[in-house]
Amino acid sequence: MRDKSLKSLTSSDKDRLSRIKLMLLDVDGVLTDGKITYNDTGEEIKAFSVKDGLGIRLLMDSGITVGIVTGRRSGALSARCQNLGIDLLYDGIRGSKTSILQQILLELNFSEAETAFVGDDLPDLGVMKQCGLSFTVADAVDEVKDQADFITKRDGGNGAVREICESILQAKDLWYALLENYQDQ
């Protein structure tokens, strides 16, 4: 079985990563650790990684479109997307995420080959199969790990998305220029 980690990329892997123009993310288990917490008033609370957020911003600032496709809807997610500047938000999806993918590709004029999806559980399998690249987090279910092109070293909600963002930026030869910008500030 081939190594699916982002640390052992072949030249073919780097070429596929460099073509990504659209990255779509699931939320629970990808941008969060998958736990759902409610306060005493029944309000849902989610914790998001700041490192993942910066990775997303770096992708977006580099011209890569980032969007959310998730089955759950929450005020916490809406606030996080607003904070990061993510306008492409499809939440509360019931049924197939693949029809949403096709709608997004049509609206934004991207191809499947230019699209990556990050998922972690069974509802993500169909859309992962249709995208040019599929990623999953270290603590994903086995069926998703088997389907994914790449598996992060980190768990969902704990820097896994940042790991993916850095790999895409490195494949596009943008990472070191971004580092220099931060060092020069």
List the helices and strands and how they pair.
Blueprint: H1 11-18, E1 22-25, E2 37-38, E3 44-45, H2 50-61, E4 65-69, H3 75-84, E5 88-90, H4 98-108, E6 115-119, H5 125-130, E7 133-136, H6 142-147, E8 150-151, H7 160-171, H8 175-183
Parallel strand pairs: 1-4, 1-6, 4-5, 6-7, 7-8
Antiparallel strand pairs: 2-3
Percentage of residues in DSSP E strands: 5-15%
H/I helix tally: 8
Q: Which structural class do the helices and strands define?
A: alpha/beta
Write down the Rg. 16 Å
Taken from the alpha-carbon principal axes, the silhouette is: globular
**Oligomeric state:** single chain
For the structure shown, list the relevant keywords:
185 residues, alpha/beta, six-stranded parallel sheet, two-stranded antiparallel ribbon, 8 helices, 8 strands
What is this structure, in a nutshell?
The chain is an alpha/beta fold. Helix content is 40%, strand content 15%.
Characterization of the model:
The protein has 185 residues and is of the alpha/beta class. It is built from eight helices and eight strands; from the N terminus they run αβββαβαβαβαβαβαα. Strands 5-4-1-6-7-8 form a six-stranded parallel beta sheet. Strand 4, helix 3 and strand 5 form a beta-alpha-beta unit. It is globular, with a radius of gyration of 16 Å. The model has no long low-confidence stretch (mean pLDDT 94).
